[in-house]
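Case study 2.
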Amino acid sequence: VQLQASGGGSVQAGGSLRLSCSASGRTFSSLSMAWFRQPPGKEREFVAAARWYDSSTIYADSVKGRFTISRDNAKNTVYLQMTSLKPDDTAVYYCAADFRGLSGRGTYDYDYWGHGTLVTVSS
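Prediction:
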């Protein structure tokens, strides 16, 4: 599975961005998809996931109510709509895919990773 993330950029606090991640190489509808991020100097952390087997979504507490993960199976794409952005949201954002059905909050739940896209939020 190849994952390609895009949509990062620079935005002021309070602004919005939408990240996209396109997938190829495996049936997208049978993949759970997630977004992680890695702030400067910190470890990679879970942001959100969209599970294929029950269509549920889960979020990190830090982004709940501000970020929305969604997927378009016809386009093999998962999105992360980010609103009310804060400087603490500054990070490299990665999309990830899981075909084992784990799709939790740990990086070990995911089998494939894309290259990151940088989001910078200024105050």
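The radius of gyration is 13 Å.
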